[in-house]
Amino acid sequence: MPNLSQPDNHATWSARDLAVLWHPCTQMRDHETVPMIPMARGEGAWLIDYDGRRYLDAVSSWWTNIFGHANPRIAAAIKDQLDKLEHVMLGGFSHAPAIELAEELLRIAPPGLARVFYADNGSSGIEVALKMSFHYWRNLGRGEKTRFIALTGSYHGETLGALSVTDVALYRDTYAPLLLAPIFVTSPDCYERDAQQSWQDYSIARLADMRVALERHAHETCAVIIEPLVQCAAGMRMYHPAYLTGLRKLCDEFEVHLIADEIAVGFGRTGTLFACEQGDITPDFLCLSKGLTGGFLALSAVLTTDAIYQAFYAEYSAGKAFLHSHSYTGNALACRAALETLAIFRDEPVLERNRELAAHLSYALAPLSEHPHVAEVRQTGLIAAVELVRDKTTRDVFPAEQRRGLRVYQHGLSRGMILRPLGNIVYFMPPYVITPDEIDLMVEVAREGIEITLRD
């Protein structure tokens, strides 16, 4: 029950939070100086704290909230479902939202995907895909295939399997003794290209590294796992769709699966509904989450092919069943939220509007490319990043311990803006309901924060 004896204000809720909660991806001691911001409600692209102060959510609440906070369509769908069925286990049972969502996902996904397996969140979805790929080869009598290939700079989650195929030291290094031993191949990250090289040429050239790895390791490899077009947690590292096209061909040639982790980049974020579309490919596994429910509820879906499904379809005594489960697999409320999210894509010109917003964002960011401490301004759809460096010519980086990105974050809060830089990379991943004027404000506050953090 609410404690009516305590004031319902920002300071009270902040103190109560810090007395009991342990927050994700946070050194809690930082909150001795960095403010904790409890939010009371949301409206579109904005969040409002308990004192009524508004904050523009420039990062879509960790890239999940695509159609705005408290979106009335999604909220109404969940409320309607609440009166019918909140949850039933999916082992031996089913319900309309799970079935209809699977049907709709397969309708809009790249062609050739035929089955949907639900999990609770993005990391869990990656675990499903990794285990399913390994188990597929085992069911075919190819038990020697036990490893995975991932890209340098990759991020796929923080459960142990997902973390195993992650190459971001901040998350991986502490737990390295617990992890699988993947094969990391040089990323097609176009920040590393020569000044004379195009994104396309550089990305295609990096396929040679993948070919070498497959020539050496395909016999022991289950799958290659990638984040299509944008490696988000590594600093919004971007590459050309031609890499996807070439990688699909290599995976087919060497008989390994291709897992596309579109948890962050799916559902219109890169300019197409799915990033894989830009490479004209269908992966063997398509992992989805985050924007799937419009940011309302936790849900993930792994889409795969009928060929993979059939490798598990046998008499029980054959021992080929995929015995993986989560208690809240295919939760009815989450599936209903996802159905309404997809209905918005169907009913409204979302992708067209996103492209217009992306063009406006590009225009607003263009002046920053000339800044003496900006090595690159890069963008793919409604994802953009500004790379801060100590020296523009050499691209010498600021020492991590200076935490310059934190200064940008704190300035943003002081101006009613939620910016959460990745190290020295200031990025933007706003909700799709943002307006051009709000984009201008977002970039202006970021520019101010960059100037402040570069003063010394």
Automatic annotation (TrEMBL):
GO cellular component, one term: cytoplasm
Matching Pfam families: Aminotran_3 (PF00202)
Catalyzed chemical reaction(s): (8S)-8-amino-7-oxononanoate + S-adenosyl-L-methionine = S-adenosyl-4-methylsulfanyl-2-oxobutanoate + (7R,8S)-7,8-diammoniononanoate
InterPro entries, per the entry: Aminotrans_3, Aminotrans_3_PPA_site, BioA, PyrdxlP-dep_Trfase, PyrdxlP-dep_Trfase_major, PyrdxlP-dep_Trfase_small
GO biological process: biotin biosynthetic process
Residues engaged in binding substrate: W62, Y155, K290, S325, R420
Record's keyword terms, sorted: Aminotransferase, Biotin biosynthesis, Cytoplasm, Pyridoxal phosphate, S-adenosyl-L-methionine, Transferase
Major localization listed first in the record, in broad terms: cytoplasm
Compartment(s): Cytoplasm
Site residues, Participates in the substrate recognition with KAPA and in a stacking interaction with the adenine ring of SAM: C25
Enzyme class: transferase
Residues bound to pyridoxal 5'-phosphate: G122, S123, D261, H326, S327
Cofactor: pyridoxal 5'-phosphate
Pathway: Cofactor biosynthesis; biotin biosynthesis; 7,8-diaminononanoate from 8-amino-7-oxononanoate (SAM route): step 1/1
Subunit structure: Homodimer.
Function field: Catalyzes the transfer of the alpha-amino group from S-adenosyl-L-methionine (SAM) to 7-keto-8-aminopelargonic acid (KAPA) to form 7,8-diaminopelargonic acid (DAPA). It is the only aminotransferase known to utilize SAM as an amino donor.
Family, similarity comment: Belongs to the class-III pyridoxal-phosphate-dependent aminotransferase family. BioA subfamily.
Descriptive protein name: Adenosylmethionine-8-amino-7-oxononanoate aminotransferase
Gene it is expressed from: bioA
